[in-house]
Design goal:
2 copies of one chain form a homodimer. By secondary structure, the first copy, chain A, is α/β, with parallel strands linked by helices. The first copy, chain A, is built from 12 helices and 18 strands. In chain A, the strands form 2 sheets. In chain A, strands 1, 2, 11, 12, 13, 14, 15, 16, 17 and 18 form a 10-stranded mixed β-sheet that branches.
């Protein structure tokens, strides 16, 4: 029996099937055009169905942020999975199991402790197997990863080269979230790729026969690539599958490319404050947006004069941007659609995603959670 | 086989059994001392086990924020449940079922639309039953509820009195989250209770035989009550069961009363920034704290010179408050315990809570989620 989105319990997380298709196809095409392999990051959605879509149906070559994701994908027949997270001792046992189950499972080192950890656990692997390792490079974001020209990086590269298999030099490109102009973005691309190439050359100088790739991530970068990206071998963005208000602000997508929305209802009027109360609190939308952009943390579809001004656990407050809102224009029961600021964070608040085509719910998809 | 908390996968949500016991017993005792009934709010934890504890084992008289909670508690043998959320048409069917299953199920109206909705659906109830209604009063918080002296309030009271059963005048006391001094708190208590009594008198003037109660909520209020609270009949706080850094800042608890922590591990060093990277990103801690208090949004147990300075999805960044942190003092693998700013928000990020006594995990508890 067909179900309409209007029949769903609010709040709920909607995913537009056609937009999802457009976003995934576009990124596959972008990569094809550049001659770059796409290893999509699944942290945004954490579902089998969308990962299959984002790999163009081949279920090979993905990036994950948790071992729960990796295990779910292994169960679902995916292979060639990169666990792009600093490796630590407590995760070795589960990684070893994944190494045995999959033909290709890769781990990441972000500092020398990760390299030491892998070295100390090579004997845990089945005979003939060794760790396949991405070395994380910090191209200026300043969170995790090796500074490319550093003793630590050289040490890591040597250690991996000596007793393991070097898969790639991997960078998140998190700095791309702070760039708003085209010129600055081009310059950021150039600098990032130059740093990766420099890091590569440091390794090749010492190990001329080393075979590994360099790859960049982040949706703002990969959605607005430039020619310089022909010099890398891999893209690993995640957010582009949904996009969100943040990507829109960064020019990484148009509003029509935002494939996910929170559907909410007006549940009460606060007349004396000219304010609508909706059933979209922070348990439905998440607070990442409000923490970064307190005055403008989401978009309400088709309502250019409405803004969400605050949230508590289960309630959102909506006022007019200009003038006073007349509550009577939005009777209790009115449905509103909210484009989240950060879709990865918003999706994580929902145990089910409703995929729809137009008004019709065509699929329900369940993400994995936890660690 | 006994399991130690150190053997758990990080990040995870720990609940200290003894502190939980202290917090629940203290609130029961506070209410007993004042002659007030406790109707604990379950939105903080959403578990059967902790609700049983907070009702002193009787499984009667609770407050919930979602119908999923109400249904879970009904399944678990709880009764006398107040769904403290603005009632709307889309929820009538599920509420009707709960009315049939339970001997006492109560709904809430926050504006006239809620009253109209209930009136229009009285015939949906079984013969001889009518809606049992809490009228939400806005004592100055400004989110939802009736201003006590208003035409709308009088209209609501008349309508409920005429064809339904008035359970209570209910206020959240959300304003208590903005009060830091004892004098201001006392004044807030006085004002709140005065407003509720005034609202009660408005009803009693017209309906002298009306039987209903007045009740106040919020952990900052109920954890620091005063004599004036002897004039109300009900408390309905929720957060006190865990407490958190925010309650500590509001003097509503001591640090030792915070019963929940996120256990996290150092997963990498960012040496050149004198920064530790831990596996507690916003999917483990939530962003409500950082949105309200960006420079000081959690407490790291026993580490008075460490502070969390930022989070991404799966990673937290920790630096020294004063001087430069020497990463070598916190080797990768070091476990840290984080007291969250807002435990309701943090708990909601976890599919399981690990209850421990000392170092031993004594129970795993699973909350409900969704709407």
């Amino acid at each position: 029996m067909s179900k309409k989105i209007h029949d769903l319990t609010t709040p709920c997380f909607l995913v537009d099937r056609e937009k999802l298709q457009v976003n995934t196809t576009r990124m596959l095409d972008t990569c094809k055009g550049l001659g770059v392999t796409l290893r999509p990051h699944t942290k945004t959605h954490k579902t089998v169905e969308f990962a299959e879509l984002s790999t163009g149906g081949i279920k090979q070559g993905i990036t994950v942020s948790t071992l729960v994701e990796a295990e779910m994908y292994a169960d679902a027949g995916f292979d060639d999975i990169l666990f792009a997270y600093p490796i630590t001792k407590d995760k070795i046992e589960r990684c070893t199991k994944l190494m045995c189950r999959l033909s290709q499972f890769h781990v990441m080192v972000s500092d020398l402790s990760g390299v030491e950890c892998l070295k100390a656990n090579i004997d845990k692997l089945p005979a003939g197997k060794t760790w396949s390792v991405a070395i994380e490079i910090d191209c200026g974001y300043g969170r995790t990863g090796f500074v490319p020209i550093s003793d630590d990086f050289l040490q890591a590269a040597r250690d991996v080269q000596k007793s393991m298999k070097l898969l790639s030099l991997y960078t998140h490109c998190g700095g791309s979230y702070y760039i708003f102009t085209k010129d600055e973005r081009e310059s950021h691309h150039q600098k990032t790729v130059a740093q990766l190439k420099e890091a590569r050359n440091i390794i090749l100088k010492e190990f001329p026969d080393a075979k590994f790739i360099i790859g960049v991530g982040s949706t703002p970068s990969c959605s607005q690539p430039s020619k310089v990206h022909q010099q890398v071998e891999e893209f690993h963005p995640g957010n582009y599958i949904f996009n969100d208000y943040e990507q829109y602000l960064l020019n990484a997508c148009c509003q029509k490319d935002i494939a996910c929305r929170v559907m909410t209802k007006v549940v009460a009027h606060k007349e004396e404050k000219n304010m609508l109360i909706v059933d979209c609190g922070f348990l439905a939308l998440e607070n990442d947006g409000i923490s970064q952009r307190p005055d403008d943390f989401c978009l309400i579809e088709g309502e250019s004069n409405l803004k969400m001004v605050g949230m508590t656990q289960e309630l959102g407050k909506i006022k007019a941007k200009e003038g006073e809102l007349n509550c009577q224009n939005y009777p209790v029961g009115t449905i509103l659609y909210i484009y989240p600021f950060h879709s990865c964070a918003t999706a994580a608040m929902h145990g089910v995603y409703y995929v729809h085509s137009g008004d019709e719910v065509v699929q329900t998809v369940k993400p994995c959670r936890g660690w």
